[in-house]
Design goal:
Layout lengths: L4 E4 L5 E5 L13 E7 L5 H14 L4 E8 L4 E10 L4 E9 L1 E4 L5 E4 L5
Parallel strand pairs: 3-4
Antiparallel strand pairs: 1-2, 2-3, 4-5, 5-6, 7-8
Length: 115
């Protein structure tokens, strides 16, 4: 478990990294513990295939993808955990409604309030 975590904005929707890094440290992939992407209709292949492959190759341990089903007004979070042997992501759960996780950070989110 991280001593503390911080969130910054990048080209990803959010990036969680070890906040015990010095303020002047250059943020590198090995410092990142979670990348969160918001899937958009125009970038399905990029968000479901290309970006996860890049994050996995960089060794980022956790990847979450948010998807909005507009027809049913449902927001889902697909969570993945890196398999260090294959350097690919395996499913770590899918959430809609209320999401409670403890890895890589402890968080509870009512996804219905984000719509």
């Amino acid at each position: 478990m991280l001593p503390r975590a911080a969130c910054i904005r990048t080209s990803a929707a959010a990036l969680v990294y070890d906040a015990s890094l010095p303020d002047d440290a250059v943020l590198r992939p090995e410092h990142c513990v979670l990348v969160v992407e918001v899937m958009s209709p125009g970038s399905v292949t990029t968000d479901q295939t290309d970006k996860p492959a890049e994050y996995a190759a960089a060794g980022i341990m956790s990847y979450w993808r948010l998807e909005h089903d507009a027809s049913e007004s449902i927001l889902s979070v697909f969570c993945y955990r890196l398999d260090p042997t294959t350097r690919t992501y395996a499913s770590a759960g899918v959430y809609s409604g209320k999401m409670t996780v403890t890895d890589p950070v402890s968080v509870t989110i009512d996804l219905t309030t984000l719509l």
